[in-house]
Amino acid sequence: MRKGGIPVPALAAMGASIVFALQAFGQSDVEKRVDELLARMTLEEKLGQMSQSTAMRAPISDEIKREIRQGRWGSFLNAGSPADRAEAQRIAVKESRLGIPLIFGRDVIHGYRTIVPIPLGQAASWNPDLIERAAALAAREASAEGIHWTFAPMLDITRDPRWGRVAETLGEDPYLTSVLGAAMIRGFQGASPGAPGSVAACAKHYAGYGAAEAGRDYNSTFIPEGQLRDVYLPPFHAAVEAGVASFMTAFNALNGVPASGNEFLTRRILRVEWKYDGLVVSDYESVLEMVKHGYAADPADAAAKAVRAGVDMEMVSATYFDELKRLVEQGRVPLPVIDDAVRNVLRLKFRLGLFEAPMRSATETEITAAARDLAREAAAESVVLLKNDGVLPLGGGVRRIAVIGPLADSPVDQMGSWVMDARPEEVETPLASLRKRMGADGVRYAAALRNSRDASRENFGDAVAAARASDVVLLFLGEEQILSGEARSRAFLNLPGAQENLAEEVAKAGKPVVTVILAGRPLTFQSVTEESSAVLYAWHPGTMGGPALAEILFGERSPSGKLPIAFPRTVGQIPIYYAHLNTGRPAPPGELGIPMGNPVDPQGYTSKYLDVELTPEYPFGFGLSYARFEYSNLRVSSPAFARGGSIVVSAEIANAGSREGFEAAQLYIRDRVASVARPVRELKGFQRVHLKPGEKRTVSFTLSERDLAFHNQAMQRVAEPGDFDVWIAPDSASGVHGEFTFTE
Ligand code: NOJ
Known about the structure:
CATH architecture of the largest domain: Alpha-Beta Barrel
CATH topology of the largest domain: TIM Barrel
Radius of gyration: 27 Å
Oligomer: single chain
Helix content: 25-40%
Number of domains: 4
Number of helices: 24
Strand order of the largest sheet: 11-16-15-14-12-13
Shape: globular
Bound molecules: 1-deoxynojirimycin
Largest sheet: 6 strands, mixed
């Protein structure tokens, strides 16, 4: 990070308040200060604090400056340069009546200047420590430029890869998302959101956004309460337990009630059940959008519904500021409801230490060597090896490689969505890394397609010639940045454009093909897999995707990523996820095709497809390694345990291969009979172990009542006595099995 940074005269002007220095003050001090300040505020000033704007452009307009002086805004998002933010803060603190500092929010989703893999890729690492360090790096870079608050982590569970925002999720599983989401929060917030180098985190999108019908962004979701509480809410509850500073409500209507006006979600569950006292912000115009949802008659009705539901701050639309004064004066919204919302806003500002140090820093960050190392580690650990016939790692005999495909040298696409503050020129692509390694003469490059959607085959000739002239082909396919992220839903999950044709033509050259897929979501690419000797899934790996992939290709590091979401064989299987119920007619493995028999003697009436296997192409938790892991000897510490007790489940893992590697061992259970049917498997733990060739280790997990609990028909969270299956497994479809009994 450059010392000194850009000159910010505004900071000097705020010296007086900074001199106060950050004193440690306790919770009751904060409440006292919040109440004192609240007592001095006019209703308009209160509504200003409840309003967040995106309108602060560089340079700041006179109108915005005037509004800041008037206390019109409590926060700005994704706005201005570090110097603009410092100047806006100076005006707020020095020139507004009460001197309440602004809070600057920004979408720092998977890195700031240094980009790490998209969250879905990070989740494939199954490495909370790494994820925490990556979030801490992003927080340091962002806070150095005057950002106080990030809109991350996204904790939406999704089982639908059509949804473009699957890229921003941590996958399909509530347990994995809870653990990794909490790690991200710890990374962003450090010792506290106000500590130097930290930012406030935001658990979003509350709730149910990832279940959008048909995978179409912003679409409605219908989730029964039991499933909501067992699958969609646990990561948010874990966020509360991790001390997350804020929540963001979702765009979707949940069971017909928009999440930004949903008293059940934000009042009953969040505030009453979970006792949350942080800030709740809406999503971008999601308050006003309740009119289009058909849930609010007009902007005034939307404002009333949102504030009553417990949304403290309105993002971008202005219904709070424009409408609530009148509604309060008319007695339609009680003043205490407004005061509560303002308390939540001010509390966060005090917790962030903004009154003492309104602008801790406004220097321009630079990407450091340590940041690059961390980005490389994160990119490498996110890579999932899906197939390997032995061609990988590439051996010393490989002298000439063909690097082919539209994603071999595309810095922007390699970064993925949400990278406002990164610079493409700082990205190292696979082509650049491979050239460094092999020398320019060792690499023949042919993009063959202009981008991932290009349907023209006119440049295939170069690619085939490059393949013929090489020992091995490295084919970089996938999805470019703009096909992934918000409002980027797809109805087809194949490799877009002419990429499949390219793979087919290149394979005809007769050289081994290693396909590397860079994408924001699970794709379907069976024909390419068949034509390839090996397939690596690299997601959108970020700034250091190139060197990370080169390390893996050449065997300096074994791939260790495991899928955080199932990969379907075809779009028609969606939603497909491992923790499904059994149904009353589970199909035997491999049952496929038109059943024999007739209506008198029916056969084949099982829950399956006629035209595609029931199972996914790759199950949740799956990922190969250059090492070869063997699981054996599952043991339970006793055949049964009772309430208040626990049980230890262990298994041996041996590395029977000739290379070292990390393995994410997974613990699954099944509750065989319950008052509400339970999934065929549920993840309850995981551990990463490192094994040298020939090494064997025992992994152990402790299970207690809490791990067996679910919501019964009365919506009580209970663990019911009975028999359970347990597996320690390399993925959700295999493993070593045991059983135990849980008793009263
Ligand atoms: C809309 C997105 O849904 C949300 O995730 C994001 O944080 C806000 N826009 C702010 O950019």
